[in-house]
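Structure representation.

___
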Amino acid sequence: MSLLHHHPFSAASRFVRLVLAEYDETVEFVEEKPWVRNPALLVMNPAGTLPIFVDDNDTVVSGGSVIAEYLVETKGARMGEMRLMPEHAADRAEVRRLVDWFSHKLHGEVTNYLVTEKVYKRRMTTAEGNNSPDAAAIRAARANIRYHIQYIGYLASRRNWLAGRELSLADFAAAAEISCVDYLGEVPWDADEAAKAWYARVKSRPSFRPLLNDALRGVPAATHYADLDF
């Protein structure tokens, strides 16, 4: 059976989980601590980051977007139109541009700050760097997320899905980031109705249900988190 080394509140891990669930793939999940440099994981991924996917043929693939495209190529072909990548090169380029935007810019300016300060630090030991949340980082994330939500709304109001006519990896990359922030109650849904409607469509998909069941001891989900109608 395939393995996914992940953390429930690693947005890149959530991205891969969504793609796996969309393709109805059975996988064993191995939870890791992203803030700890595990020598065994470094052998598989010298960058020391999550997620790491080990296919049932022992192929090791690292990184959310890399794993997602690997799954498209190896698992998605049998799904016909549900490949999550468009047929034409220019359309695929737009999907990749948006995956990069959400996985790096949105993550770096919002998700990483909030998850690190509100989730990871609660789990760290003193030796691992446990200390008080950085209020400045949280303030920066709260300021930054508004324009990211507005950009999602801009895309969603002009296209059927974020990258174009069909659901794609871009939607799951964005939803993975947003879901982490939404669990913490930090998404200003009043900033853009089109973004809110898009997210409701994505989180209503069966593949999203495992994420909505995630729970973090000591950090309860926002009351609307698992509500498909907000």
About this structure: The mean pLDDT is 95.
